[in-house]
Every structure is written in C-alpha cells, then in structure tokens.
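Format notes (please read before filing issues)

Several people have asked whether sequences and structure tokens are stored in separate files. They are not. Every record keeps both together, in the order shown below: the sequence lines, then the token lines. Line labels are part of the format and must not be stripped during preprocessing.
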Amino acid sequence: MGLMFGFPVWEKISLAQSQAVQVDAYQLTHYTFTGTDTAVQTEVLSTSSLWYIALLAGLSVVVALFAIFQYRNRLLQIKLGALNALLIGGTLIACTIATFQGDKLITNAEGEGHYMTGFWLPAVALVFNLLANRFIRRDELLVRSADRFR
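Then the structure lines:
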C-alpha cells in the first residue's frame, strides 16, 4: 500500500490528444496539450484534491505494520487484518469513484481510461492481507489443538 503513493491510479487521454486526466493518490489533474509535434506545452486546467485516498492508504500501511509486530497475540492480529481489509477495500472504492469523476472531465472523448499500477497495488495488497489472515487463523487453530493434548 505504501507503493501506491508513487504510482498513478488512472489515466485517460482524449482521441485528439489535446486533453488528459490523471488520478493519483493525492489529486485528480486535468491537463491540456498545445503546440506542435516537436514542442508540446502542457497546461493544467484543474486539480482537485483526493486526500481521502492517501489517508486510507496511509492508515492501511500503519495498521499493517502494527499487526506484523503483534505476533504474540494472534487474535488481535486477525482483528487488525480484518480492519486492514476494510481500509484497503475503502481505498479501492475511493479510487474507482475518483476515476468516474475524472472520466466526466473530458467531454465528447471516446475511448477508455486505463487503470495504472496504483490501482492494482491495493488489489494485490488485499489478496495478500486475506492470505495473511488465513494463515494466522490456521496457526491459531494449530496452537489451540496442541493445547488440548497437554
């Protein structure tokens, strides 16, 4: 989730290649391109803050790091993993909403936007978080079964 801060989430360029919209963890930016093929000038038409995406991703990083060091209390780890899954899911939903907002900025532009690396990183983090919870739960069941034999 920490890598999400450095990668763009979504991007759309108009077919005439005169406008573009980019979404990252911090902001949604609408660009326009002017000039010739050899000298292209970029002008920012509008930006809007997406602080809530960065906040959700940052909270997810903090919860994951805290959960890693709670290895002596596996039940707390499972609860923190569930909280982290909610935060990561919220990040994915917020990114999807931001892409719909960005899609509306380029009017009369056919084609589709492209999901970039920053969108897929939370999806991968969610899968790894679910795997971690599964193995923590399995370890807890193993410890409980070993306690019964004593």
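For reference, the curators noted about this record: Residues 9-148 form a domain with the Butyryl-CoA Dehydrogenase, subunit A; domain 3 fold (CATH 1.20.140). The two ends are 41 Å apart (CA to CA).
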